[in-house]
Amino acid sequence: MAKKGPQINHLSFADDIIIFSSGRSHTLKLIMETLHTYEHASGQLINREKSNFMVPSNAINSTVRRIKKVTGFKQKNSPITYLGCPLYIGRQRIIYYSELIAKVVARIAGWQEKLISYGGRVTLIKHVIQALPIHLLSASSPPATTIKQIQSITANFF
């Protein structure tokens, strides 16, 4: 995180949590102790199969090994999806939004097999295709190219 930026140390929603850390051994041990205390107090267990960590591409190998050793979590490369939005390290890339494009293409491919009137196609696009990216677009701003791709795909449906 930027030194002058907001000092966020975690984000949580329902039963999901993202923890931001320096990766120092002492910090990681404190985080794991807190998670173990939570498990003991709540009776809920952390799913280690679904727990991952991310580091920048220029992270030192010893830091990556330390995080794996202390947490027992697997490393996952950027981007990851959290609440339907891509989270990534570095600059925005069109590929991070390929899942959204794939959803639109899959929906339209299923509809093209059916005989649907022009009005039916307009209704499907208006109510279904436009609803797919609403959450993503309200939480982030994908590259203009991604929006143009969706517009092109829906235009070809007619």
Number of distinct beta strands: 6
Percentage of residues in helical conformation: 40-55%
What is the CA–CA distance across the termini? Answer: 46 Å
* Class computed from helices, strands and strand pairing: mainly alpha
- Sketch the major β-sheet: 2 strands, antiparallel
Strand residue percentage: 5-15%
**Cα shape:** elongated
Strand order of the largest sheet: 1-2
Q: How confident is the prediction overall: mean pLDDT?
A: 81
Helix tally equals: 6
| Secondary-structure element series | EEHEHEEEHHHH
Uncertain runs: none
Radius of gyration: 21 Å
Account of the 3D structure:
The strands form 3 sheets. A two-stranded antiparallel sheet has the order 1-2. A two-stranded parallel ribbon has the order 3-4. It has a two-stranded antiparallel sheet with strand order 5-6. The chain is mostly helical and 158 residues long. The protein has helices at 25-42, 61-71, 98-112, 118-129, 134-139, 144-156; strands at residues 10-13, 16-19, 52-53, 74-75, 80-82, 85-87. Helix 1 packs parallel to helix 2. The protein is 47% helix and 11% strand. The radius of gyration is 21 Å and the shape is elongated.
